[in-house]
Specification:
By secondary structure, the protein is of the alpha+beta class. Helices cover 25% and strands 29% of the residues. It has 13 helices and 24 strands. The strands form 4 sheets. A 10-stranded mixed sheet has the order 1-2-4-3-5-6-7-8-9-10, with helices on both faces. Strands 11, 12, 13, 17, 20, 23 and 24 form a 7-stranded antiparallel sheet that branches. Helix 2 links the parallel strand 3 and strand 4. Helix 1 crosses helix 6. It is globular, with a radius of gyration of 24 Å. It starts with 5 loop residues before the first helix and ends with a strand.
């Protein structure tokens, strides 16, 4: 099959666009009213539409919620803590009406706004670039001038694009005391190009969501075209680095902003490994919550005004670090994990405590076996697969697979005996009589010899029952280039982090293939890729376990 092209990626987007719009929050058309007078008082106080002029003349459409008279948490001057909420990708300021009302009822001034380039806001889509970041400070300035907001108590909460902007705001504006980033990203470069592999299906979905409600800037259009066409990837990386909170983490730490990160194990856009890496490098007050689901699926019911664990946690976080109420959030274990597939909750003092040891399995010629330290040397083996050929293994469908896993506990599933062996290496372990608790990022090490200088491997780890049904635990791609054909080289593939309990009696299956519809693979069709192991450099699967 031909390598991915822009048109092929965009066709993928149309297949999942409807679900994307639902999960991102049902967009509501915003009335064309500029700086409308306050509406009639509601339970949470007053609500009005507003136009906020940015420094470059662009007008941002916004909502302002003000607490009702007598609501607690005003200071002696009658000023309330402020929460700023940037809308998510493709959505507008009305996305957060339910949460804005709830926050106002609890004593916050709330300003939500449509990010520039979308819906009625002016300008062009900046994708959390310098203009979007400057708009955060503009919105805070406007709120302090036009609402009873307290300049000493400012926080942010946002979903998706809004989640990424909260972290960038924490780095750029020291007035922000606390942020809650919900389904946001820490590293946009990793989101588009982790494992040196283009994440084409995710990029196509985002482009599809943007198309009906946003106006692409020439820069954004060029970056998308380059990504799909496999052209000027260093330029794509430079563009994404500017938009990555991970590149500004020192400024967040210097500002002391309290950070809540809430994401899903199966997020198609922002994989959990980048979130856990970012969390570990934070030195500020911090909290990490990871649950089963896909992008923004965990938070969706909260947008409808229903009780929602993630939004509840975000409000407690703001109460603690924006209001300054130490009794609001007394949870002493800052890392909360909802374990797949059961959804049971674990709490840990830090990320290092999530796993207690590593279990190392030898990838042998026929199976996965315990690698005993000091045991006999591993046997040498080599297995060749056809390049860019489907094996049946798959990371799923962007935006849908994680949602199915969340709702019916059914991740992408294969029948392991039916996987196409000419297209993939398949190795299985013995059953685990007591099960196995996987916590963190598994890692595959092998030797690769290819007939082409470039290529991609996608590694999959499955939970397999007695019938051979394999349910995906985790996966990840890894690409290479500039290798001499026919010359072996070592390759490491870190899988996306997860928390998964392998049931008693089940076993593991490791699959190594070269093609997955989620990614723009680099392995030429018709080439050969040989995986191998030797006594000097044995192939291994390392599992972080409790």
């Amino acid at each position: 099959m031909e390598r991915p092209t822009p048109s092929r990626g965009r066709r993928t987007a149309s297949a999942v666009l409807a679900a994307a719009l639902v999960l991102g929050g049902a967009a509501v058309a915003r009335p064309a009213v500029a700086d409308a007078p306050p509406a009639a008082s509601v339970r949470a106080g007053s609500f009005r539409l507003a136009d906020i002029p940015a420094k470059d003349g662009v007008v941002l459409k916004a909502d302002a919620f003000t607490p009702a008279a007598g609501t607690p948490w005003a200071d002696p001057r009658g000023r309330y803590p402020l929460v700023v909420q940037p809308a998510s990708w493709g959505q507008n300021d009305l996305e957060y009406v339910a949460q804005g009302r709830a926050l106002a009822a609890e004593g916050y001034v709330v300003v939500t706004y449509t990010v520039r380039g979308f819906w009625g806001s002016g300008g062009e889509v900046d994708v959390a670039g310098p203009k979007d970041v400057a708009d955060i400070s503009t919105v805070i300035d406007w709120a302090l001038a036009h609402t009873p907001a307290d300049p000493d108590r400012v926080g942010m909460v946002g979903l998706s694009l809004g989640g990424g902007l909260t972290l960038l705001g924490a780095a750029d504006d020291p007035r922000i005391k606390a942020v809650a980033s919900l389904s946001g990203w820490a590293d946009l470069t990793d989101s588009l190009y982790s494992g040196r592999t283009r994440h084409l299906q995710a990029a196509a979905v985002l482009a599809g969501i943007q198309a009906p409600t946003g106006r692409k800037s020439p820069e954004f259009a060029r970056v998308l075209d380059d990504l799909f066409a496999d052209r000027d990837l260093p330029g794509v990386v430079d563009w994404a680095d500017v938009r990555s909170p991970a590149r500004r983490l020192d400024r967040i730490n210097a500002n002391g902003t309290a950070v809540l990160l809430a994401n899903a194990w199966g997020d198609s856009f922002f994989n959990p490994s980048q979130v856990t890496d970012f969390y570990q490098r934070l030195t500020v007050p911090k909290r990490l919550e990871l649950r089963p689901g896909d992008h923004a699926s965990q938070e969706f019911t909260g947008l409808l005004g229903l009780d929602n664990a993630t939004w509840n946690s975000a409000r407690r976080w703001l109460d603690r670090y924006v209001k300054g109420d130490p009794a609001a959030d007394t949870r002493t274990q800052p890392v909360q994990l909802d374990v797949r597939p059961s959804g049971t909750t674990e709490s840990h003092p830090d990320w290092q405590s999530v796993s207690s040891r590593s279990e190392r399995l030898a990838i042998d010629a026929d199976d996965l076996a315990a690698a005993a330290p000091g045991g006999p040397a591993a046997a040498e083996w080599r297995t060749t697969v056809l390049g860019d050929t489907p094996s049946g293994a798959s990371g799923g469908v962007a935006l849908l697979s994680g949602l199915v896993d969340q709702t019916v506990h059914q991740p992408p599933t294969v029948v392991v005996p039916l996987l196409a062996r000419p297209a993939a290496v398949v190795r299985q372990s013995q059953p685990y009589p007591q099960g196995l608790s996987l916590r963190g990022a598994a890692r595959v090490h092998t030797t690769v010899t290819a007939t082409a200088p470039q290529g991609t491997v996608v590694a999959y780890l499955y939970d397999v029952d007695a019938l051979g049904i394999g349910r995906l635990i985790s996966h990840a791609p890894q690409s290479w280039s500039g290798r001499a054909p026919g010359q072996p080289f070592p390759l490491d593939v870190p899988l996306f982090t997860t928390a998964y309990d392998l049931p008693a009696g089940h076993h593991l299956a490791l699959v190594l293939g070269t093609r997955d519809a989620l990614y723009g693979g680099e392995t030429p069709l018709g080439s050969r890729v040989t995986f191998g192991s030797s006594a000097a450099d044995p192939a291994t699967l390392t599992l972080p376990v409790r």
